[in-house]
């Protein structure tokens, strides 16, 4: 076997056998799905702040915890998500009152800008102490939520200052949720406390927008007060009048009514609200969770049928809005995987990413304008950063989404005979041009593989030629146990912050031209088709 002449046939033979093995493997185990991508036109355009985040109002229940927002690490992580809205709201918002105490952050001329963001850095020892105490505090808050008995709390100027400074220094636009459970004898909204707060914010030139009330459909359960849609709409008109009289809030955003998702087809509160209030809101908001955090399992998180329930709900709400106030923008004003604070051991692990990414894809495709993730930081287990303020898998997913996905929604379809269709899901957008990572005209395909085997996607032949940059996210641990992991690998490397001020470089991996796109078992990925030259993406 010394001469090349005799070795050659053996090599050729081996290559052939090998190729045949791969082929038969392919037939048996690897599913190849033909997909069609259409970037000739955009089917929708969402807000640039489409992916936005929330901080639960319970953070303010004990004011000292608002200091956590001065953490340098948290600031760095949040900056990565802009442009975005920062919603401050949730159940607690209807149980807190602004109570001026003459205690505020000292800033030049009442404006928070420039080096103030530097000055606000939380000393390390204090951050450590607060983080430790926060663990206990979150337990108390969660218990309160489970019992459904909400303690009333007060917040001062200082808390507002820190909240605003956090939003402003991270480049996020603050939406403040006002208390709608302050009511007069006639059961209309008592605006006195809100006016006090507005005056204070105005004196500090804080640019922000507003909401009024959280999940009013359950006021009876939470507080024994019943407010119907029509009355709530009138309350919004009242708030709008107050804002109109303000020199700085006369053009600021007003969003509502933040109802929870329709159950058993009950939509009467929304209809009544829109009839009286639609004219004063900039977008109609509702909340969505797939499952109850205390009554769910990993199977739900991976079940295409559960993921599909969002489509039904979106269409139900869209139908009401289109009927009563056609053209009004619709937002998911608060949303996550599981309600009741999330599902322990699921909502903060790798597997939560399937619900999150599918929600982002579906909501944009069906025409929602903004999706606000519950929560950036806070109690429960659906947060984007953990108790040590380190990023969880859904943070990294959100960061990649921000960088790679632009506001124009394009059409992506999958052709399949195997009937497994819904367990591989894909979405197509223009690539985000604002992040300036790729040339004009690029498109971003993102896909989820809910199967326990690899799936291959076959691009239409005329698209196979171009360069594809892949960002494949998998659990940092192998096997199904890996689904419960609190860390995530991108293209094989565990994602971590470089230091408190620095996010890692998120570099894609160039795929070999002409090959199928390989999506590993239980993974999701973004693929930037750099040479798409899509006119709508230029
Ligand atoms: C504060 O504002 C006043 C007038 O609005 C201005 O004259 C002064 O220069 C400002 N000071 C600082 C430190 O920005
Ligand atoms: C932050 O504050 C400055 C000064 O008031 C303002 O110009 C800027 O628009 C604010 N940024 C955000 C994101 O609200
Ligand atoms: C808001 O008020 C300011 C100051 O009074 C005024 O200059 C501006 O035109 C008003 N804007 C709107 C949209 O009404
Ligand atoms: C693929 O690339 C080759 C070489 O760069 C080029 O000649 C060919 O036209 C391309 N095919 C398509 C369909 O774009």
UniProtKB/TrEMBL annotation:
It is an enzyme of class 3 (hydrolase). InterPro entries: GH, Glyco_hydro_79. GO terms for cellular component: extracellular matrix; extracellular space; membrane. It catalyses: endohydrolysis of (1->4)-beta-D-glycosidic bonds of heparan sulfate chains in heparan sulfate proteoglycan. Belongs to the glycosyl hydrolase 79 family. Keywords: Cell adhesion, Disulfide bond, Glycoprotein, Hydrolase, Secreted, Signal. Pfam families: Glyco_hydro_79n (PF03662). This is Heparanase. Its EC number is 3.2.1.166. It is found in: Secreted. One of its GO terms (biological process) is cell-matrix adhesion. Residues 1-19 form the signal peptide. The keyword Glycoprotein applies. It comes from the Eukaryota. One of its GO terms (molecular function) is hydrolase activity, acting on glycosyl bonds.
């Amino acid at each position: 076997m010394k001469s090349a002449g005799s070795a050659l046939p053996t090599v050729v033979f081996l290559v052939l056998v090998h190729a045949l093995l791969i082929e038969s493997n392919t037939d048996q185990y690897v599913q190849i799905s033909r997909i069609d991508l259409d970037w000739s036109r955009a089917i929708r355009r969402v807000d640039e702040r489409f992916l936005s985040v929330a901080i639960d109002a319970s953070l303010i229940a004990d004011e000292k915890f608002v200091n956590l927002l001065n953490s340098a690490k948290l600031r760095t992580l949040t900056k990565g998500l802009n442009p975005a809205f920062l919603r401050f709201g949730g159940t607690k918002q209807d149980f807190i009152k602004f109570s001026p105490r003459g205690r505020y952050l000292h800033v030049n001329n009442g404006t928070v800008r420039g080096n103030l963001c530097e000055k606000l850095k939380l000393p390390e020892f204090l951050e450590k102490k607060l983080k430790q105490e926060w663990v206990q505090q979150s337990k108390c808050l969660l218990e309160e939520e489970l019992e459904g008995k909400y303690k009333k709390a007060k917040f001062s100027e200082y808390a507002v200052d820190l909240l605003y400074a956090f939003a402003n220094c991270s480049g996020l636009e603050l939406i403040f949720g006002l208390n709608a459970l302050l009511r007069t004898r006639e059961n209309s909204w008592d605006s006195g406390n809100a006016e006090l707060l507005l005056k204070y914010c105005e004196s500090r030139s804080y640019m922000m927008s507003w909401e009024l009330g959280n999940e009013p459909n359950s006021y009876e359960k939470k507080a024994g007060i019943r407010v119907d849609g029509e009355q709530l709409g009138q309350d919004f008109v009242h708030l709008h009048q107050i804002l109109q009289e303000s020199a700085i809030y006369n053009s600021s955003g007003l969003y509502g009514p933040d109802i929870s998702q329709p159950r058993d087809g009950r939509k009467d509160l929304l209809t009544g609200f829109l009839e009286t209030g639609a004219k004063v809101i900039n977008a109609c908001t509702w909340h969505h969770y797939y499952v109850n955090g205390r009554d769910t399992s990993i199977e739900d998180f991976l079940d295409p049928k559960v993921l599909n329930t969002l489509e039904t709900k979106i269409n139900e709400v869209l139908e009401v809005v289109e009927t009563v106030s056609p053209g009004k923008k619709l937002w998911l004003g608060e949303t996550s995987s599981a309600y009741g604070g999330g599902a322990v051991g699921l909502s903060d692990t790798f597997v939560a990413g399937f619900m999150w990414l599918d929600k982002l894809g579906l909501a944009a495709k069906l025409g929602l304008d903004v999706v606000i993730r519950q929560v950036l930081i806070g109690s429960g287990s659906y947060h984007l950063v953990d108790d040590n303020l380190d990023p969880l898998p859904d943070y990294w997913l959100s960061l990649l989404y921000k960088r790679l996905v632009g506001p124009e929604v394009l059409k992506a379809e999958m052709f399949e005979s195997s009937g497994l269709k819904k367990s591989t899901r894909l979405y197509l957008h223009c690539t985000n041009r604002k992040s300036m990572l790729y040339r004009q005209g690029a498109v971003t395909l993102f896909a989820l593989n809910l199967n326990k085997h690899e799936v291959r996607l076959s691009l239409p032949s005329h698209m196979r030629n171009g360069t594809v940059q892949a960002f494949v996210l998998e659990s940092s641990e192998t096997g199904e146990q890996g689904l419960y992991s609190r860390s995530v690998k991108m293209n094989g490397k565990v994602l971590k912050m470089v230091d408190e001020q620095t996010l890692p470089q998120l570099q894609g991996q160039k795929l070999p031209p002409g090959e199928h796109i390989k999506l590993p078992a239980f993974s999701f990925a973004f693929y930037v088709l750099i040479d798409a030259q899509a006119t709508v993406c230029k």
